């Protein structure tokens, strides 16, 4: 089976036969690529199969998963295609690698966080949880997508209080929405801009390692 998207993979150095491993799918931000997310998850490769996915839309100096027509409103055609492709990639990885399908996580930054939160709503209990770093949920996704139950879904949302790109309140609104949907939400705020601080990395890694054991 051919992969529906370009990707890089990190896996435990020692693979135990007949053992299935938790999976972490990395979704990068605007103009980035599949190589640039591994630094922030350093140390997790001994416990997870980590798939870093390349966006399907060329956007120098890298790629994106969607573009914008209006600020805060993704172009619908590219966005819909991105959701479909990542969903297909998760199915591909589940079939091709020794993955524990009960412990699959999405982790995204900026537009990668936008995709992760939207995918959480479209995939529902197919995934165990998400880590959404500095993102938001597009309004059309809430109004027009088929929303699956997310009760009990593990959700880590973080946002910089000084974010000049995506307002802090957008992250708060996403947290409030998932709480209303009875997901298990952890929300972290930082005195940062549009970035992933070392403290943020430490917090989500600890959260992931705790959640994957639950």
Automatic annotation (TrEMBL):
<comment type="similarity">
    <text>Belongs to the AB hydrolase superfamily. AB hydrolase 2 family.</text>
</comment>
<keyword id="KW-0378">Hydrolase</keyword>
<dbReference type="Pfam" id="PF02230">
    <property type="entry name" value="Abhydrolase_2"/>
</dbReference>
<dbReference type="InterPro" id="IPR050565">
    <property type="entry name" value="LYPA1-2/EST-like"/>
</dbReference>
<protein>
    <submittedName>
        <fullName>Esterase</fullName>
    </submittedName>
</protein>
<dbReference type="InterPro" id="IPR029058">
    <property type="entry name" value="AB_hydrolase_fold"/>
</dbReference>
<dbReference type="InterPro" id="IPR003140">
    <property type="entry name" value="PLipase/COase/thioEstase"/>
</dbReference>
<feature type="domain" description="Phospholipase/carboxylesterase/thioesterase">
    <location>
        <begin position="20"/>
        <end position="199"/>
    </location>
</feature>
